[in-house]
């Protein structure tokens, strides 16, 4: 019976649950779904991670290639993040060029990386104006069940943490480079960003870590990214307005969560080694 | 190359760092010599032994049916979605259609793949479609199209076979009517040696012709078949390289036998799916 | 084309009696006409008619850089264009899947170094090589496209003249090629091992080659084999339908037998074509 009720009146179904301060999947309003992080399982990449937040699953793989720095930034390497909403993850996405949503998501992730300064691009330069590392970070969503920004950000940062690059020696006089595959060093990750998404239901209730159903029914979403106990990025694409109190409440929750997530990343990496 | 405005682009040109490494890696010929002498493969398997398979259905919560398969390091995920009306078609067709897309993740291979489907991926999509078309009761889905997407997260050889076997399980979970259980196996051939379920190094080894005098046998190549279990029908067959008739025939036998080994695994996975369904 | 059951039975019985509706036996081909060197601007070309199937192939050559992982090899690329005139099915984007399938099978059949040696196309290791663009235009579709296309491609490659390079000047990273001025100074490609494809179609309990459109409708499964000398360079099943392993083996045997014969006939014909013959669209 509940099945039919849900598909006929989804909003009402949710309202009935939320009246009793509980969500249909058994969580309380401010509960987060369990997070699973796995790193280094894809050996063809120079660093990889798989992140699950509830059902939402994102795979991130970083492949390093050698290229020439841009003329206007001769001492900088590259970090190229791209999010792909592959047709595997949901019936909403069809094959072909990236959808608008994928493009927006890619830009958000790129902005987060830029704002947080987690990677010093100058460290990716091997020899100014001649050669530099280019890290292609591809994030592929394989199961889309809401809070995708959180999963992507988490996948990217835990992947960056495990990336290791081979040693390169460059001889400027001969313009020749030599790569030593045996000697690999990890890259420096200066800061860890953690993203948290909230959904605003019926203009007043705030649901933490929404599923895709909740995202579809809600009247607005809010994503807060913190980095080193500071705000790094806030994304509120229209929708219901929030009062200051609610906002600061969300920020506080986000700060609390960021600590536990950081611990989780650490243990995931330790387990891998 | 035209600029892709819908993604973030890196520098205009970048090359894999492996190109500048000291040539320490084994050539295919040396690797084959080692393998031949040892009588075993680098991971300790016999020549005609399949890798261990991990197969799980229901990996993607949003899909109607899905499966995740792991064969050694090879990791593939397949999703199947609800049948929908065949898009962009005005006339009514009595038979249903399958749409298959096979894709390697950019980081899944030794060399970085691009986001757009390349020719190899298109060919694999074609082969996959061909294999599954013979297994699905298309006449029960008139004017409908079933979308099947396969994503390879890590390619360590035999990715296409993995995708086809997994797609069979995903189709069952999606409730698409089918004639039979479908399984698929790859075998690599070099110098008359048949390597069942080759990993990526072995695949590479089977694609080249050895130049040194020792090796007079010209046979090399890859064979992929998909088999419908109860009917003993081969619903898809693909070979490339350079193979003589005898070797082809004996390869076929090996493949058929190996398919039989995989069937119980698929059956077990399906039974588990059904018993879980009854319990909940 | 759609056939009624009676027509299908007629074809089926004919095949069983080894006497097909157009008088051929099971291993027989329809007449093939072939003509080479008909596109003036191409480096090599061929036109082939097999019954109503009409194929035009032109080869273009350009200088390219070898792939970094294969510094000693040139490149070859196949492109198939299914003209909308060929059959009503090709209207709009209908021919696209078939075109992709055809070019993929060709690429796969020419992949092994034993069938077509790309090393011959290398000019300077890691720097310069020839790239062959093989453009295949399907003018009319009368069944058995795979066989016709492969024969036409082989004929066009046989006809291809690669320009001779007089000298190579290397100055640092710059490489300059000096191509011979005389247009008649050229090299032929070695196509002795280039594969020919044979479509083997199972009709009833027997296998036939070179099916016409009506016979293709009666088929329960078919495979395409690419034969290079007596070896198989590619085998793939096409269309819907499945085969028993036993049937597959006998189809392979038949394909091999016919493929060798077809190749001999083609090479023989090609060697008889002299440059001073009349040419034009199949005069």
From TrEMBL, chain A:
Its main location: cytoplasm. Keywords: Cytoplasm, Exosome, Nucleus, RNA-binding, rRNA processing. It comes from the Eukaryota. It is found in: Cytoplasm; Nucleus, Nucleolus. Residues 31-165, 192-252 form the Exoribonuclease phosphorolytic domain. The keyword Nucleus applies. Coiled coil: none annotated. This is Ribosomal RNA-processing protein 43. It comes from Sitophilus oryzae. The gene is LOC115888173.
UniProtKB/TrEMBL annotation, chain B:
InterPro entries: ExoRNase_PH_dom1, ExoRNase_PH_dom2_sf, PNPase/RNase_PH_dom_sf, Ribosomal_Su5_D2-typ_SF, RNase_PH. One of its GO terms (cellular component) is nucleolus. Its main location: cytoplasm. SUPFAM superfamilies: Ribonuclease PH domain 2-like, Ribosomal protein S5 domain 2-like. The keyword tRNA processing does not apply. It is found in: Cytoplasm; Nucleus. It comes from the Eukaryota. Belongs to the RNase PH family. This is Exosome complex component MTR3-like. The lineage of its organism: Eukaryota, Metazoa, Ecdysozoa, Arthropoda, Hexapoda. The gene is LOC115885444.
TrEMBL record, chain C:
InterPro entries: ExoRNase_PH_dom1, ExoRNase_PH_dom2, ExoRNase_PH_dom2_sf, Exosome_comp_Rrp42_subfam, PNPase/RNase_PH_dom_sf, Ribosomal_Su5_D2-typ_SF. GO terms for biological process: exonucleolytic trimming to generate mature 3'-end of 5.8S rRNA from tricistronic rRNA transcript (SSU-rRNA, 5.8S rRNA, LSU-rRNA); nuclear mRNA surveillance; nuclear polyadenylation-dependent rRNA catabolic process; rRNA catabolic process; TRAMP-dependent tRNA surveillance pathway; U1 snRNA 3'-end processing; U4 snRNA 3'-end processing; U5 snRNA 3'-end processing. SUPFAM superfamilies: Ribonuclease PH domain 2-like, Ribosomal protein S5 domain 2-like. GO terms for cellular component: cytoplasmic exosome (RNase complex); nuclear exosome (RNase complex); nucleolus. It is found in: Cytoplasm; Nucleus, Nucleolus. GO terms for molecular function: mRNA 3'-UTR AU-rich region binding. This is Ribosomal RNA-processing protein 42.
């Amino acid at each position: 019976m509940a099945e039919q009720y849900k598909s006929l009146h989804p909003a009402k179904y949710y309202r009935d649950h939320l009246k009793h301060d509980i969500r249909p999947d058994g969580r309380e309003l401010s509960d987060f779904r369990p997070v699973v992080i796995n790193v280094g399982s894809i050996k063809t990449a120079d660093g990889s991670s798989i992140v699950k937040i509830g059902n939402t699953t994102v795979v991130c793989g970083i492949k390093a290639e050698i290229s020439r720095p841009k003329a206007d930034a001769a001492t900088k390497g590259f970090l190229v993040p791209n999010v792909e909403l592959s047709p595997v993850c949901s019936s909403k996405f069809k094959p072909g060029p990236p959808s608008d949503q994928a493009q927006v998501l890619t830009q958000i992730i790129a902005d987060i990386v830029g704002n947080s300064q987690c990677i010093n691009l100058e460290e990716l330069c091997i020899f100014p104006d001649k050669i530099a590392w280019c890290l292609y970070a591809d994030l592929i969503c394989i199961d889309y069940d809401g809070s995708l920004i959180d999963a992507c950000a988490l996948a990217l940062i835990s992947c960056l943490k495990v990336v290791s690059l081979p040693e390169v020696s460059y001889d400027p006089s001969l313009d020749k480079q030599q790569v030593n595959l045996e000697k690999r060093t990890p890259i420096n990750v200066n800061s860890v960003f953690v993203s948290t998404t909230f959904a605003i239901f019926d203009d007043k209730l705030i649901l933490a870590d929404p599923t895709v159903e909740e995202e579809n029914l809600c009247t607005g979403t809010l994503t807060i990214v913190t980095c080193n106990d500071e705000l790094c990025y806030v994304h509120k694409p229209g929708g219901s307005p929030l009062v200051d109190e609610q906002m600061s409440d969300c920020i506080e929750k986000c700060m609390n969560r960021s600590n536990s997530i950081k611990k989780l990343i650490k243990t995931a990496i330790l387990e891998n080694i | 190359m035209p600029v892709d405005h819908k993604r973030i682009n890196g520098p205009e040109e970048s090359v894999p760092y492996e190109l500048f490494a000291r040539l320490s890696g084994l050539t295919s010929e040396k690797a084959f010599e080692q393998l031949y002498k040892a009588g075993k493969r680098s991971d300790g398997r016999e020549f005609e032994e399949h890798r261990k398979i991990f197969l799980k259905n229901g990996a993607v919560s949003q899909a109607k049916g899905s499966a995740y398969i792991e064969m050694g390091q090879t990791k593939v995920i397949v999703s199947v979605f609800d049948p929908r009306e065949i898009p962009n078609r005005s006339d009514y067709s009595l038979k249903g259609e399958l749409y298959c897309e096979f894709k390697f993740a950019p980081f899944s291979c030794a060399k970085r793949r691009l986001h757009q489907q390349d020719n190899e991926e298109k060919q694999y999509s074609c082969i996959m479609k061909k294999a599954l078309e013979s297994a699905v009761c298309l006449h029960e889905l008139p004017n409908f199209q079933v979308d099947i997407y396969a994503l390879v997260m890590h390619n360590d050889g035999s990715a296409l076979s993995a995708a086809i076997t997994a797609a069979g399980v995903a189709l069952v979970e999606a409730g698409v009517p089918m004639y039979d259980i479908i399984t698929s196996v790859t075998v690599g051939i070099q110098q008359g040696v048949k390597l069942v379920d080759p990993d990526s190094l072995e695949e590479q080894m089977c694609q080249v012709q050895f130049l040194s005098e020792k090796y007079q046998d010209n046979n090399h190549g890859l064979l992929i078949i998909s088999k419908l279990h109860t009917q003993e029908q081969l619903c898809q067959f693909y070979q490339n390289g350079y193979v003589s008739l005898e070797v082809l025939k004996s390869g076929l036998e090996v493949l058929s036998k190996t398919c039989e080994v995989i069937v119980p695994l698929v059956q077990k996975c399906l039974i588990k799916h059904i018993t879980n369904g009854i319990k909940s | 084309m759609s056939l009624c059951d009676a027509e299908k039975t007629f074809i089926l019985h004919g095949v069983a009696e080894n006497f097909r509706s157009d008088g051929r036996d099971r291993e027989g081909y329809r007449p093939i006409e072939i003509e080479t060197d008909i596109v003036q601007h191409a480096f090599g070309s061929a036109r082939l008619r097999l019954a109503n199937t009409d194929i035009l192939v032109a080869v273009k050559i350009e200088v390219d850089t070898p792939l970094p992982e294969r510094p000693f090899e040139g490149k070859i690329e196949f492109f198939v264009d299914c003209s909308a005139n060929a059959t009503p099915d090709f209207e709009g984007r209908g021919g696209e899947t078939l075109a992709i399938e055809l070019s993929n099978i060709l690429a796969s059949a020419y992949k092994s170094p034993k069938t077509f040696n790309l090393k011959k196309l290398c000019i300077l290791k890691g720097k310069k090589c020839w790239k062959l663009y093989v453009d295949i235009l399907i003018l009319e579709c009368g069944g058995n496209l795979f066989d016709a296309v492969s024969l036409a491609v082989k004929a066009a490659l046989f006809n291809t003249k690669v320009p001779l390079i007089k000298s190579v000047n290397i100055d640092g990273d710059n490489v300059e090629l000096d191509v011979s001025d005389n247009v008649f100074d050229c090299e032929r490609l070695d196509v002795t091992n280039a594969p020919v494809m044979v479509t083997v179609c199972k009709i009833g309990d027997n296998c036939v080659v070179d099916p016409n459109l009506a016979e293709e409708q009666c088929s329960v499964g078919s495979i395409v084999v690419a034969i290079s000398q007596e070896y198989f360079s590619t085998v793939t099943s096409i269309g819907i339908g499945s085969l028993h392993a036993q049937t597959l083996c006998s189809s392979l045997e038949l394909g091999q037998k016919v493929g060798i014969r077809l190749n001999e006939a083609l090479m023989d014909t090609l060697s008889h074509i002299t440059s001073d013959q009349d040419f034009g669209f199949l005069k």
